[in-house]
C-alpha cells in the first residue's frame, strides 16, 4: 500500500488525485492533505479519506475544521502547516498541487525528508529549479511529473538513453484565445479567458495557458526535469491536446504519448510508477477524431513564451522574477484591475527593471520573489 500526502487537495489536481485514489482504495493510504480556504470540501475529504494530518490557510479555519473531523485528526495551518503535511508523516510520495511559488518551501521540506515527489506545482521548478534539482540529487528521491506534457516525455524516455535525445517537443493547445489575432485580444474578459478549449483546470493555470506563460513554465520545467538545454526544447501548437508531447532521437525516430485530455492519466502514472492500473478515464478513439492539427509557434503572437525562453536561458533570479511578476499580473487581471494584454506588460517591465543574480541561494530567491511581487503590484496603466 502506497502512503500519499497531497498539498492542495481541494484544487483541480488535488481533487483528481483523490478521485484516482478512490478508484483503487486497496493501493493507497492518504496520510495527510492540505487545503487553503475551501474548508467545506476539505472537511468532506478528511471524513472520507481519514488522513492523520490536515492543514488549512489560517488559524481560524483550522479551528473550524477541527470541530468537524474525526477526533484524533491533527489540524495545522499556514506555511508551517504545509511543511508539516509535506514532511512530517509516513508518506512515501507527496503530490505537490499547490498553485504558485508558495509550493517551493513545502516541496523542499518533502525532499529533505526523503519523500518522492509527484510534481504538479511547476512554479516551484521555475522559481528555483537549481535548488530543487540539487536537493533531489542529494537525497536521491524521484520526481514524477504530473504535468501532462512532462508525464508524456517521461513515458517516452522510459528505457531510453537521454544522451541520444536530439530534442523534445512540448505541445500547446493555444489556450482560450488560440484563434484570435493580437488585435482581437483588446478588451477580452476574464470570463472568456477562463474558457480553456480542452482542459478543466484552476483559474491561474487557465490564464497562464491563454498568455502562453504556461508553456514557458513548461519549457523551464522540462529543462530541469530532463537535464536538456533550451535549444533542445521546442513548442508546437496542437489544438486538440491529444499528442501530449514527443521526443525525437538522434536517428530521427520520434516517440510520442497520446491520450484524451484527462489529468487523471498522468496523475495515476505518477502515483504508482512504473505500474499502471484501470481508471475511469475514456479510451482515445483516433478514428472518431479523424484528423490532428499542428501550427508553428508564433513568438510575436505569444511574447510571454519568448520571455520565458530568455528568462530560462539567463537563469539565476530571472525565472524567479518572471514567475512572481506573472503571479501578481494574473491575480490583478482576475480582480479586473488590469487587462489581458497588460499581463505581459507587467512581466516585461519587471524583467527589465530586475538585476539578475547568478546561482542564488534560497534567501535571495525569496527576496527577489518578494521584490518582483511588490514591483508588479505597483505598476499603473
Ligand atoms: N489543473 C490542472 O489540470 C493542471 C495543473 N498544473 C499545476 O498544478 C498546480 C495546481 O493547479 P490547480 O490544481 O489547477 O490549482 P487550483 O487553483 O485548482 O488549486 C490550488 C490549491 O492550492 C490551495 N491553495 C491556494 N492558496 C493557498 C494558500 N494560501 N494556502 C494553502 N493552500 C492554498 C487551494 O486551496 P483552496 O482551494 O482550498 O483555497 C487548492 O487546494 C499549479 O502549479 C498548476 O500549474 C499542472 C498541470 C495541469
Ligand atoms: C493539462 C496540462 O498539463 C496543462 O498544463 C495544459 O498543458 C494546459 O494547456 P495548454 O497547452 O493550453 O497550456
Ligand atoms: Mn501542462
UniProtKB/TrEMBL annotation:
<feature type="binding site">
    <location>
        <position position="12"/>
    </location>
    <ligand>
        <name>NADPH</name>
    </ligand>
</feature>
<feature type="binding site">
    <location>
        <position position="209"/>
    </location>
    <ligand>
        <name>1-deoxy-D-xylulose 5-phosphate</name>
    </ligand>
</feature>
<feature type="domain" description="1-deoxy-D-xylulose 5-phosphate reductoisomerase N-terminal">
    <location>
        <begin position="4"/>
        <end position="129"/>
    </location>
</feature>
<feature type="binding site">
    <location>
        <position position="121"/>
    </location>
    <ligand>
        <name>NADPH</name>
    </ligand>
</feature>
<keyword id="KW-0521">NADP</keyword>
<feature type="domain" description="DXP reductoisomerase C-terminal">
    <location>
        <begin position="258"/>
        <end position="374"/>
    </location>
</feature>
<feature type="binding site">
    <location>
        <position position="38"/>
    </location>
    <ligand>
        <name>NADPH</name>
    </ligand>
</feature>
<feature type="binding site">
    <location>
        <position position="148"/>
    </location>
    <ligand>
        <name>1-deoxy-D-xylulose 5-phosphate</name>
    </ligand>
</feature>
<dbReference type="InterPro" id="IPR026877">
    <property type="entry name" value="DXPR_C"/>
</dbReference>
<feature type="binding site">
    <location>
        <position position="13"/>
    </location>
    <ligand>
        <name>NADPH</name>
    </ligand>
</feature>
<feature type="binding site">
    <location>
        <position position="149"/>
    </location>
    <ligand>
        <name>1-deoxy-D-xylulose 5-phosphate</name>
    </ligand>
</feature>
<dbReference type="Pfam" id="PF02670">
    <property type="entry name" value="DXP_reductoisom"/>
</dbReference>
<feature type="binding site">
    <location>
        <position position="215"/>
    </location>
    <ligand>
        <name>1-deoxy-D-xylulose 5-phosphate</name>
    </ligand>
</feature>
<feature type="binding site">
    <location>
        <position position="214"/>
    </location>
    <ligand>
        <name>1-deoxy-D-xylulose 5-phosphate</name>
    </ligand>
</feature>
<dbReference type="InterPro" id="IPR013512">
    <property type="entry name" value="DXP_reductoisomerase_N"/>
</dbReference>
<dbReference type="InterPro" id="IPR003821">
    <property type="entry name" value="DXP_reductoisomerase"/>
</dbReference>
<keyword id="KW-0479">Metal-binding</keyword>
<comment type="similarity">
    <text>Belongs to the DXR family.</text>
</comment>
<feature type="binding site">
    <location>
        <position position="202"/>
    </location>
    <ligand>
        <name>NADPH</name>
    </ligand>
</feature>
<feature type="binding site">
    <location>
        <position position="218"/>
    </location>
    <ligand>
        <name>Mn(2+)</name>
    </ligand>
</feature>
<feature type="binding site">
    <location>
        <position position="122"/>
    </location>
    <ligand>
        <name>1-deoxy-D-xylulose 5-phosphate</name>
    </ligand>
</feature>
<feature type="binding site">
    <location>
        <position position="123"/>
    </location>
    <ligand>
        <name>NADPH</name>
    </ligand>
</feature>
<keyword id="KW-0560">Oxidoreductase</keyword>
<feature type="domain" description="1-deoxy-D-xylulose 5-phosphate reductoisomerase C-terminal">
    <location>
        <begin position="143"/>
        <end position="226"/>
    </location>
</feature>
<feature type="binding site">
    <location>
        <position position="147"/>
    </location>
    <ligand>
        <name>Mn(2+)</name>
    </ligand>
</feature>
<keyword id="KW-0464">Manganese</keyword>
<dbReference type="InterPro" id="IPR036291">
    <property type="entry name" value="NAD(P)-bd_dom_sf"/>
</dbReference>
<dbReference type="GO" id="GO:0030604">
    <property type="term" value="F:1-deoxy-D-xylulose-5-phosphate reductoisomerase activity"/>
</dbReference>
<comment type="pathway">
    <text>Isoprenoid biosynthesis; isopentenyl diphosphate biosynthesis via DXP pathway; isopentenyl diphosphate from 1-deoxy-D-xylulose 5-phosphate: step 1/6.</text>
</comment>
<comment type="function">
    <text>Catalyzes the NADPH-dependent rearrangement and reduction of 1-deoxy-D-xylulose-5-phosphate (DXP) to 2-C-methyl-D-erythritol 4-phosphate (MEP).</text>
</comment>
<feature type="binding site">
    <location>
        <position position="218"/>
    </location>
    <ligand>
        <name>1-deoxy-D-xylulose 5-phosphate</name>
    </ligand>
</feature>
<protein>
    <recommendedName>
        <fullName>1-deoxy-D-xylulose 5-phosphate reductoisomerase</fullName>
        <ecNumber>1.1.1.267</ecNumber>
    </recommendedName>
</protein>
<dbReference type="InterPro" id="IPR013644">
    <property type="entry name" value="DXP_reductoisomerase_C"/>
</dbReference>
<feature type="binding site">
    <location>
        <position position="196"/>
    </location>
    <ligand>
        <name>1-deoxy-D-xylulose 5-phosphate</name>
    </ligand>
</feature>
<feature type="binding site">
    <location>
        <position position="36"/>
    </location>
    <ligand>
        <name>NADPH</name>
    </ligand>
</feature>
<keyword id="KW-0414">Isoprene biosynthesis</keyword>
<feature type="binding site">
    <location>
        <position position="149"/>
    </location>
    <ligand>
        <name>Mn(2+)</name>
    </ligand>
</feature>
<keyword id="KW-0460">Magnesium</keyword>
<dbReference type="Pfam" id="PF08436">
    <property type="entry name" value="DXP_redisom_C"/>
</dbReference>
<feature type="binding site">
    <location>
        <position position="173"/>
    </location>
    <ligand>
        <name>1-deoxy-D-xylulose 5-phosphate</name>
    </ligand>
</feature>
<dbReference type="InterPro" id="IPR036169">
    <property type="entry name" value="DXPR_C_sf"/>
</dbReference>
<dbReference type="Pfam" id="PF13288">
    <property type="entry name" value="DXPR_C"/>
</dbReference>
Amino acid at each position: 500500500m502506497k502512503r500519499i500526502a497531497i498539498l492542495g487537495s481541494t484544487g483541480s489536481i488535488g481533487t483528481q488525485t483523490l478521485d484516482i485514489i478512490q478508484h483503487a482504495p486497496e493501493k493507497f493510504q492518504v496520510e495527510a492533505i492540505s487545503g487553503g480556504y475551501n474548508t467545506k470540501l476539505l472537511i468532506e475529504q478528511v471524513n472520507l479519506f481519514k488522513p492523520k494530518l490536515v492543514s488549512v490557510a489560517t488559524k481560524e479555519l483550522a479551528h473550524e475544521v477541527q470541530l468537524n473531523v474525526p477526533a484524533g485528526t491533527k489540524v495545522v495551518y499556514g506555511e508551517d502547516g504545509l511543511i508539516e503535511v509535506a514532511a512530517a508523516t509516513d508518506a512515501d510520495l507527496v503530490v505537490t498541487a499547490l498553485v504558485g511559488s508558495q509550493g517551493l518551501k513545502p516541496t523542499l521540506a518533502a525532499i529533505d525528508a526523503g519523500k518522492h515527489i509527484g510534481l504538479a506545482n511547476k512554479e516551484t521548478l521555475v522559481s528555483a529549479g537549481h535548488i530543487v534539482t540539487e536537493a533531489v540529487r542529494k537525497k536521491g528521491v524521484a520526481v514524477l511529473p504530473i504535468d501532462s506534457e512532462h508525464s508524456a516525455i517521461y513515458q517516452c524516455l522510459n528505457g531510453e538513453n537521454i544522451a541520444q535525445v536530439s530534442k523534445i517537443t512540448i505541445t500547446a493547445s493555444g489556450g482560450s484565445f488560440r484563434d484570435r489575432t493580437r488585435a482581437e485580444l483588446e478588451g477580452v474578459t476574464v470570463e472568456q479567458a477562463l474558457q480553456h478549449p480542452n482542459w478543466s483546470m484552476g483559474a491561474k493555470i487557465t490564464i497562464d495557458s491563454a498568455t502562453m506563460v504556461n508553456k514557458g513554465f513548461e519549457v523551464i520545467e522540462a529543462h530541469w526535469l530532463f537535464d536538456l538545454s533550451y535549444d533542445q526544447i521546442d513548442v508546437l501548437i496542437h489544438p486538440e491536446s491529444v499528442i501530449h508531447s514527443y521526443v525525437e532521437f538522434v536517428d530521427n525516430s520520434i516517440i510520442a504519448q497520446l491520450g484524451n485530455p484527462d489529468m487523471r492519466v498522468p496523475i495515476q502514472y505518477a502515483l504508482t510508477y512504473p505500474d499502471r492500473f484501470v481508471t475511469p478515464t475514456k479510451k482515445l478513439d483516433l478514428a472518431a477524431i479523424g484528423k490532428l492539427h499542428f501550427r508553428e509557434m508564433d513568438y510575436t503572437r505569444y511574447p510571454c513564451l519568448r520571455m520565458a525562453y530568455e528568462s530560462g536561458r539567463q537563469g539565476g533570479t530571472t525565472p524567479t522574477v518572471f514567475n512572481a511578476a506573472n503571479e501578481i499580473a494574473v491575480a490583478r487581471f482576475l480582480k479586473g484591475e488590469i487587462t489581458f494584454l497588460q499581463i505581459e506588460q507587467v512581466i516585461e517591465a519587471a524583467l527589465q527593471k530586475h538585476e539578475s543574480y547568478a546561482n542564488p541561494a534560497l534567501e535571495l530567491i525569496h527576496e527577489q520573489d518578494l521584490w518582483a511581487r511588490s514591483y508588479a503590484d505597483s505598476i499603473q496603466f
